[in-house]
Design a protein that fits this description.
By secondary structure, the protein is of the alpha/beta class. It has one domain: 2-Layer Sandwich (Nucleotidyltransferase, domain 5). The chain contains six helices and eight strands; from the N terminus they run βββαβαβββαβααα. Strand 4, helix 2 and strand 5 form a beta-alpha-beta unit. The relative contact order is 0.20.
Amino acid sequence: MAIYPVTDYILAVDFGRDRDHSAFATMAVRHEDSGPYDYAAYRQPTRAILQLGGLRRIPLGTEYLEVVKQLRQTVLRLHNLAGWAARPVRVHVIVDAAGPGQVAIELIRAQQLDIHFTPALLTSGHEVGYSPSGKLTVPRRELITNLRYLLEVGLIRVQNGLTHKAALESEVASVRFGGGQSAHDDLVIATGLAAFQARRIYPELVRPRQAA
């Protein structure tokens, strides 16, 4: 099977501070062969897969400026990983813009990073859309359902030995669609945001579910 280069990195952030952690999830998007070579079209069919290669939970009480500083360092590291790639590698940053995320949005924009930036708001609704201020609105149910689906069908590959892997698996299993659980959900929200952004970039990720 051919190994294809990374096309996109997605860094998702769920901001917290005193009661909830801030959390980072980093995914790489690459393609792999999907089925036999198509001699009629003279091409090898491929499909996008996601590699969850980074989970970070920031200590409680960490100031937003420090979290944004760590975000900046992560973005620069992702660009450096791309090296002298034959094609540009895009870095996407998506953040939960509710609560403390409102403050972080302008702090991130002030960094003038080479990123595709998406502030998002989780809602209790049923449709993806945009708020009056232009933020992406994502139903919490859709965020969680999409993440669970991509994990179940193996389109998200979790790196061996990933820090916080067990905690993420616990959150994925126990998280509530309506929120309000007593346990932390920062890792599942960050990972869910990354997976949702990947679906927006590569809609074919969900075609098997739609066709079923």
